[in-house]
């Protein structure tokens, strides 16, 4: 698979440079993604800008990668502004997939996902005994 990988602190960006995505190219992406997971990257942005078609093998691999990202509270973002290609992705029924038209929007989505995970973890730090009878924490009581 002809591609370029850019590693950043919070995500890895994979630029796919193929017109048709499937078969051996899909298998290559799975291998690349697993290597990135081992390195600690749980947020993946896959730029499919030059890609026009995807086959069932490609959809299947994307489902696996998306599941791996989700398990680690990460996010897989697929980038394409090609409406026909996006329709193929939607028809593939990849659960909770994020499809955006630009890499910049994908980066923003990764940062927002990380913030949501951080805030979610903070809100889980409260126990029932931390709340008073009126439902406020002791520091929030009027």
TrEMBL record:
Domain STAS, residue spans: 1-91
Regions that span the bilayer: none
Sequence ranges of Acidic residues compositional bias: 120-133
Residue ranges of the region described as Disordered: 120-142
Domain of life: Bacteria
SUPFAM superfamilies: SpoIIaa-like
Ranges in coiled-coil conformation: none
Protein name: Anti-anti-sigma factor
Organism whose genome encodes this protein: Runella rosea
């Amino acid at each position: 698979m002809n591609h370029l990988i850019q590693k950043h602190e919070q995500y890895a960006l994979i630029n796919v440079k193929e017109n048709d995505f499937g078969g051996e190219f899909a298998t290559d992406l799975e291998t690349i993604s697993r290597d990135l997971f081992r390195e600690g990257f749980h947020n993946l942005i896959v730029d499919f800008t030059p890609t026009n078609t995807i086959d069932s093998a490609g959809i299947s691999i994307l489902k696996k990668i998306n599941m791996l990202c989700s398990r680690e509270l990460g996010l897989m973002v697929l980038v394409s502004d090609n409406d026909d290609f996006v329709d193929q992705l939607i028809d593939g029924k990849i659960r909770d997939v994020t499809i955006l038209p630009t890499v910049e929007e994908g980066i923003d989505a990764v940062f927002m996902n990380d913030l949501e995970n951080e805030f979610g973890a903070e809100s889980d730090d409260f126990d029932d005994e931390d709340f008073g009878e009126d439902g406020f924490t002791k520091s929030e009581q009027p």
